[in-house]
What does this fold into?
Amino acid sequence: MRLEKVYKYQLVLLIFIIVFGIQHYYLQNINFEWIYYEKILNSVFLLSIFTVLFSFIFLIFGSIKTINRKKTIENEKIFLIINLILYYFTVCISLYLLDQIRG
It folds into this structure.
């Protein structure tokens, strides 16, 4: 699998977590009235933790491979920069979701 495909999958995961965190922020009073919402919130939180951990490892590995190539592929560099920026937003959203989980 090419790095560009993996970057696209990672991009979709990061955007999903960010969009879920934003919708949770604005609609949390409505969402917690729904019975299964806490299970969904816990599932997305676990997904965000695994995504943050594996994305960190993959971004380091991918950036080393992308930068050290003799033939540069511009799309991979663009995906790498976008994923790095979204990675930090995802870390913030994960911390926010950690704060919202009822124990």
Remarks:
- Residues 37-67 form the longest helix (31 residues).
